[in-house]
Design brief:
about 120 residues, mainly beta, about 0% helix
Length: about 120
């Protein structure tokens, strides 16, 4: 069983920055694709960013150029650096790992961006 724990959410003004973290007790982030999704109130969960086992990254158009996904394999930690935040970035942010088609999720961390 894989457990993912997110942290780093909070309240920030528009234009500000936050860094989200996702940790696990197992050395798996370098083996499987991992990423971030978000869900705003009343909306469906949507893809934000992903990094593959070999370090390739992909971003949703809405965050491209503002968010950066990276990981520290030694710390078993995945990060999402979020800059130039906008009110529309307000959502619960979830860490995801795709282990050969089986998806694991954290419980989420709330990001609120005030205008």
């Amino acid at each position: 069983q894989v457990q993912l724990v997110e942290s780093g959410g909070g309240l920030v003004q528009a234009g500000g920055s936050l860094r989200l973290s996702c940790t696990t007790s197992r050395t798996i982030f370098s083996v499987y694709p991992v990423g971030w999704y978000r869900q705003a109130p009343g909306k469906q969960r949507e893809f934000v960013a992903r990094i593959t086992d070999i370090g390739n990254t992909i971003y949703a158009d809405s965050v491209k150029g503002r968010f950066t996904i990276f990981r520290d394999n030694a710390k078993n930690t995945l990060y999402l650096q979020m800059n130039s935040l906008k009110p529309e970035d307000t959502a619960d942010y979830y860490c995801n790992m795709n282990q050969r088609g089986v998806h694991y999720w954290g419980k989420g961390t709330l990001v609120t961006v005030s205008s």
